[in-house]
């Protein structure tokens, strides 16, 4: 390989693939403490029109949950109330 990472595309390529109907869904995700992907699934057109420029957000709760989606002791800011 000469500096190209497989699976990474440019924004221009993403827009072209969405326009051509080759991509219809985008998953915006982060890894939680167990290594699971947690996040959002949005239509590709919504991603292009809204999230690409302005970004999105995730609750801190998603980062501090155990396998049962409960927050363990020691994570006071990671709860349903404060996000």
Fold and architecture overview:
- The structure is a single chain.
- This protein is of the alpha+beta class and 83 residues long.
- The protein has a domain at 11-56.
- It has two helices and two strands.
- It has helices spanning 11-19, 44-54, and strands at 25-31, 37-43.
- The mean pLDDT is 85.
Would you identify the regions where 5 or more consecutive residues have pLDDT less than 50?
none
Structural class: alpha+beta
Mean pLDDT: 85
Which overall shape is indicated by the principal axes computed on the Cα atoms? elongated
Give the oligomer, counting copies of the same chain as homo and different chains as hetero: single chain
Radius of gyration: 16 Å
The SSE string, one letter per element, is: HEEH
Q: Could you describe the largest sheet, including whether it forms a barrel?
A: 2 strands, antiparallel
Instruction: Give the percentage of residues in beta strands.
Output: 15-25%
- Strand order, biggest sheet? 1-2
Helix content: 10-25%
Write down how many β-strands occur, each being a DSSP E stretch of 2 or more residues. 2
- The number of helical elements comes to 2
Distance between the termini: 42 Å
